[in-house]
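User: Can you predict the 3D structure for this chain?
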Amino acid sequence: MEPEEWVRQHWLHHLASDLGYPQGLISVEHAVELNGMKRFADIVCHDIHGQPLMILELKRPNVKLNKTVLDQALRYHLVMQSPWVVISNGIHHQGFRFTHGAFQALNSLPTFAASQDEDN
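Assistant: Here is the predicted structure, written as C-alpha cells:
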C-alpha cells in the first residue's frame, strides 16, 4: 500500500467508525473542476442532501503540512463551499471551520450528527 493510501484508509476508518459519517456520503477522489481543469479532492464528506460538508486533502507522512498543502485544499473549498477543510499527512492534522466568510482553526472535528445540527 502506498503511503498516501495508508493515510486515506485511516481517515476513512476514522470518519465512519469514530465520527459517524455514513460511508455512502463519503466520496474518494472526488472530481472538482478548477479553472477548466479536472482535479480530485482526496475525500469529501457530504450531508444528507448531498452538499459537501468536509474536504480532506491528504499527503504522505513525510510531506510537511504547509501553505502549499492548505492552498490546494482551499482551492477545492472555493468550488465546493464546504464548512470544514482538513489537511493531514496521517501524523499531523489541521482542521478549519468556515463560517460567514471567515475561517478558524479547530481543535477537533464534528461528528456527522453534530455537523447536521449546525447552521451551515
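The two ends are 36 Å apart (CA to CA). The CA atoms of residues 86 and 95 lie 4 Å apart.
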